Amino acid sequence: MSKLLPVEEAQARLLALRAPLAPENIAFSESLGRYLSEDVIALRDQPAAPLSAMDGYAIRFADLPGPWTIVGEIAAGAAPERPVEPGEAMRIFTGAMLPEGADTVIIQEDVTAADTQLTLTGENIGSRGAHIRDRGSDFVAGTPLLPAGTRLHSGAIAAAIMGGAAQLGVGTRPRVAILTTGDELVQPGRALAPGQIPDSNGTMLAAMLAPEPAIVTIPLHIRDDRETLAKVLKELARRHDVIVTVGGASVGDHDHVRGALDDAGGTLDFWKIAMRPGKPLIAGTLGDALLLGLPGNPSSAFVTATLFLLPLVRHLAGARHPLPEIRRAPLAAALGPGGQRRDYLRARLDNGLLRPFDGQDSGRTFPLAEANTLVIREIGAAPRAAGEPADYIDIA
Ligand code: AMP
Ligand code: MG
């Protein structure tokens, strides 16, 4: 048996084949899920001036317990027209700038206003500076808000906007072609002749890539024909950063991905990983494109896409941490010993406990419907009792 590549080594080799794509500037509205190509540094203080955190009255703390004369009103977005002098109060609303002279806000529930007279009627006077957001209390100019390589989620986008950026620099989205291979495959939903099966992998891979910052083609299907495959690979390589094939990655007479990569003028980088499912994974280059050949069994395709395809796409799109996060939780039931390859067991994490499924045949699709995690079992691992911890990856 030729030596199988450990998963981490294969992942590192794959990501080292190409640098992230060049950055581009985009509007905030387009930025969800993209990876920052540069640090976002605050360009302004937030707030830029002391603001009221409540609806109430701006006063001088030394004037307590009042009464006060109301001398004006400030709403959010307005600049105060005059300072607050001793004995004076100004009506103020949440988000409005505090006038000069005032150092405290009394909330409206604690006072009674009659005409221009304001009297303290509550007991909740607070302390000097109460209900005021100081200048820069959120962040000051120069604060690092988000590091390069961050995936932009809604809250991160909000922070970048408030920091005063005009637009964002992010990694360009890789163009990904999905190619399913196999004479037995029929488009989803079509009638099946004997020996045929629906092509589930193509659409599954497109769905896995949908949340990622990638431009993904509608899955293309071709038959098990080496010549056609080589021609199609060559053509796709001109317009894509990644070609992901599924099926035909093994050594059977009808497995043509390796041969077709050769014929097309590509270079194999690695083949065969010490993992189960997913051993016959292929990685190589073809012109400027990367070729990732996933095995066709649905569970193998799913697991290899999780561990290789998604990280590759994230890496090219500029992710700082493209690999799936490995977490740890106790097992709900005993787990047998590890074998000669690392297992990625389809499993469920419910109420904090991991339960790997009984049927781990890589050809099965049904467990994929149920699984929300992959439990990792190391090569040669000792059996574990229920309650002992195991490593896992979230997939849902
Ligand atoms: P292969 O990697 O081509 O040897 O395929 C391994 C197994 O996965 C075979 O049983 C195939 O029929 C099945 N298979 C291959 N491609 C797909 C696909 N796109 N969708 C569902 N099953 C597939
Ligand atoms: Mg096949």
Low-confidence stretches: none
| Backbone CA Rg | 30 Å
Q: Which percent bin holds the helix content?
A: 10-25%
Q: Helix/strand-derived class?
A: alpha/beta
- Main sheet: strands, sense, barrel: 7 strands, mixed
Query: What spatial form do the alpha-carbon principal axes imply?
Result: elongated
CATH superfamily of the largest domain: MoaB/Mog-like domain
CATH architecture of the largest domain: 3-Layer(aba) Sandwich
What's the oligomerization state? single chain
Indicate the mean pLDDT.
97
End-to-end gap? 35 Å
How many strands in all? 27
Q: What is the CATH topology descriptor of the largest domain? A: Molybdenum Cofactor Biosythetic Enzyme, Chain A
Q: Would you state the CATH class of the largest domain?
A: Alpha Beta
Beta-sheet strand percentage?
A: 25-35%
Name the bound molecules: adenosine monophosphate, magnesium ion
Written description of the protein model:
This protein has helices at 7-16, 154-162, 201-209, 226-239, 257-263, 298-316, 366-370; strands at residues 23-26, 40-41, 51-52, 56-59, 68-74, 88-92, 104-107, 111-114, 117-120, 132-133, 144-146, 168-171, 175-181, 185-186, 197-198, 215-216, 220-222, 242-246, 267-271, 275-276, 282-286, 289-294, 327-330, 342-350, 353-356, 373-377, 389-394. The chain has four domains: 7-22 and 172-316, Molybdenum Cofactor Biosythetic Enzyme, Chain A (3-Layer(aba) Sandwich), CATH 3.40.980.10; 25-41 and 139-171, Molybdopterin biosynthesis moea protein, domain 2, CATH 3.90.105; 51-133, Beta Complex (Molybdopterin biosynthesis moeA protein, domain 3); 327-394, Beta-clip. It has seven helices and 27 strands. Strands 13, 16, 17, 18, 19, 21 and 22 form a seven-stranded mixed beta sheet that branches. By secondary structure, the protein is an alpha/beta fold. Helix 1 (7-16) packs across helix 6 (298-316) and helix 4 (226-239) packs across helix 5. The model has no long low-confidence stretch (mean pLDDT 97). Strand 8 (111-114) and strand 9 form a beta hairpin. Magnesium ion binds next to loops.
